[in-house]
Amino acid sequence: MTEPVLSVRNLQVEFASRRGTLRAIDGVSFDIAKGEVLGVVGESGAGKSVTGLSVIGLIDPPGRIAGGEIHLSGLRIDNLPPEEMRRIRGKRIGMIFQDPLTSLNPLYRIGDQIVETIRTHLDLSEQAARRRAIDLLAEVGIPAPEKRIDGYPHEFSGGMRQRVVIALAICAEPELIIADEPTTALDVSVQAQIISLIKRLGRDHGTAVMLVTHDMGVIAETSDRVAVMYAGRVAEIGPVQDVVKTPLHPYAKGLMGAIPTLAGDDKRLVQIPGSMPRLSAIPRGCSFNPRCAFAFDRCRVERPDPLPRGAQSVACHLYDAVPTESAA
Amino acid sequence: MSAPFVQVRNLRRVFDVSKPWLNRVLEGGHLEYLKAVDGVTFDIRKGETFALVGESGSGKTTVARMVVGLLPPSSGSVLIDGVSMTDPRQAPARRRLRRRIQMIFQDPYASLNPRFRVDAIISEPIRAFELIQGEGDIQARVGELLSLVGLHPDDRLKYPHEFSGGQRQRIAIARALASDAEFIVCDEPTSALDVSVQAQILNLMRDLQDKFGLTYMFISHNLAVVRHMASRVGVMYLGRIVEIAEGRELFARPRMPYTRMLLGAVPDLAMSGRQRIPVKGEIPNPINPPSGCAFNPRCPLAFDLCRREAPELIDGVACHAVNTAPVPA
User: Fold this and answer.
1) Over the stretch A2-29, which tens digit does the pLDDT of each residue have?
2) Is B266 in Cβ contact with A262 (below 8 Å)?
3) Would you say domain B6-100+182-324 falls under CATH 3.30.950.10?
């Protein structure tokens, strides 16, 4: 097997606060292969965005990476000095954030912003960089790019701005793109366009994509594999079809049933009682146990480790040494 | 059959978005108007859930605000249980009607006063309409309402910041029920919530509807949520209703090309092998909408009539192509 583009091992992220240290990420591990799209899904506070930020080295104090390792194509990047990390960020890892208006500088023409980024990372002349910028804008589907390149961000609609941000993210041909809720601020019809764009880029350039979103529908349409996060841990990870159709973890099961679908019938939605625990009050043992209908004694004292189960991997005691489908 | 509970007729709302007078004189330019809602007509029967769905800027929230009387319409009428929301002569009847109409807003962080304790928030409608006399009885009623929405009666002594988003939305629902409302307008009630919490709130809203025979007007951009909640659905595009149908019918057999595109664009869990209509273009600028049917620049079926003349809503669809020729499946 070839080396994964991104390999995260037992990542731990802590935030120091007045009331002690809060652990936002607690032992997260996953790989993303070349050309693969990994969806990271979870509710607010699950730690999806913090995972993305730690990979690109943007965890600011009081937060810090307290343990674990992050490798980018074999190179360990979680302990690099800021200066070296800056050369990797943008060149080898591209970023797409939720709000395209805040990712672009409103005072500069979008062309200048793209040219600046290209010339920071690649050794190109002003003219060559501008030609490349026009090609990039055309590739992300902006009509008349040779005219639009001299426009300011406010002259673009939300969907078009997000396309510009994607052009910025791919301008140095990165190995990995981190997209944090890239379509959340957009309307459905525009969202569909952006999703197919991200999918096409991964396919055409062999870029690995980490797609962070709360929208399971977006994941189902875009990703090859999905990681379901809960309270700073990966509850379940596996191929997207398997996790959507036959989720194993009780939380993943509840989550899939809680999503209204267009094809579904009108019956009541599956309801998970309660809500995600605060970081200051993560329950002992499995963090999901107070909300779990299948919790037993072991869940309240011992934290479950990920167990392989076919192509999926699930962190739940129900699947430990229980060969039958007792959790169905 | 009796008259519909809510009758909305030819509702219009125009906003003046011109530059200030002095700028117009010095810099040139002319008056500009934005037709946020342009001739919207629908009925809501008692006990049903009528949903308006559309993308941002389609005018759904503006319609909701005019229906409850938070915003005066530029023209057109809203009749609720036979009482006009606009006619000044019916003001006394409207005052009696107010109690029976409530609204739930999108952002539960903004719709609850952070300086009010929960009991003050929920009892406000009770006190304003003088429904219950005596402090003890009011507090008992507040406790009852809190248990109704799945909170603890003792929660009435807390402040909004002590609750999560989903719990706040429950408080907002309790407040809406406090005046024994019959008609509740819900503007994106679950858009700010996580999916597992959204499921709790949607289930709660349906339980309360069964229990009290509530009538909902439900505004959302999320088609799957609308599919789950609504008995009838109106699809809005640039200030007009382009298609209106029974929920089941609309999602099984969408007729207007825009509805088809919208349904095709929704990322869905049960997506595999679905025939997708590729989405093209974006919503045009509402200040300067295209002539004729506003959807014509994006429509695969558009022909010259669509560019000249805005289609009327005939038999639930406002589309020249559908109304003059059968749509190819």
Assistant:
1) 789 999 999 999 998 888 888 899 999 9
2) yes
3) no
Q: pLDDT confidence of A79, banded at 50, 70, 90?
A: confident
Residue A271 has its nearest CB partner, among B203, B225, B283, at B203
Tens-digit pLDDT profile for residues A151-208 = 999 888 888 888 899 999 988 889 999 999 888 878 888 888 888 888 888 888 889 9
Neighbours of A106 (CB within 10 A): 9
Q: How many CB pairs under 8 A join A and B?
A: 117
Spatial CB neighbours of A87, under 8 Å, sequence gap ≥ 6: none
Q: What pTM does this model have?
A: 0.83
Q: Using a CB-CB distance cutoff of 8 angstroms, which residues of chain A are in contact with residue B282?
A: 157, 159-160, 189-190
Residue type, A296: F
Q: A76 lies in which domain range?
A: 6-92+172-319
Provide the residue ranges of all domains of chain B, joining segments of one domain with +.
6-100+182-324
In a domain, A161, yes or no: no
Taking CB atoms and an 8 Å cutoff, what residues of chain B touch A264?
227-228, 270
CB contact under 8 A, B55 and A189: yes
Q: Where are the alpha helices (DSSP H) in chain B?
A: 21-27, 60-68, 91-98, 118-128, 135-148, 165-178, 195-212, 223-229, 247-252, 257-265, 304-308, 320-324
Residue B242 reports pLDDT greater than 90? yes
- The answer, yes or no, to whether the previous bond of B257 is cis (omega within 30 of 0) is no
CB A149 within 8 A of CB A137: yes
Residue of B nearest to A263 (CA): B270
**Mean pLDDT, rounded, for B306-317:** 87
Report the side by side order of strands in the sheet with A20-32.
A20-32, A6-17, A63-72, A75-76
Interface test with A, best of B210, B228, B236, B260 (most A CBs within 10 A): B228
Q: Chain A contact for B227, CB < 8 A?
A: yes
Per the listing, tokens 């990542």 go with A11
